[in-house]
Specification:
- This protein is an all-alpha fold.
- The protein contains 2 helices and no strands.
- It has a domain at 38-63.
């Protein structure tokens, strides 16, 4: 593979992997929201408190 083609291919792969990471982060957020929604409907305060603590820790880790 010539140098410009290899560079183009490498850039495409980097873009694809970055996109996959964003999808993974998005899916993680959706799972958290779904979990919180289920807990809210059950009204189990101790479990809801645990989830809120996990979300707080996730937000701190992202900063």
């Amino acid at each position: 593979m010539s140098s410009p083609d290899k560079e183009k291919s490498d850039n495409a792969l980097k873009g694809f992997f970055a996109f996959c990471e964003k999808i993974d982060e998005h899916n993680e957020k959706i799972r958290l929201v779904e979990s919180i929604t289920r807990r809210l409907f059950k009204l189990d305060i101790s479990e809801l408190n645990y989830i809120l603590d996990a979300v707080k820790a996730l937000i701190k880790d992202k900063k």
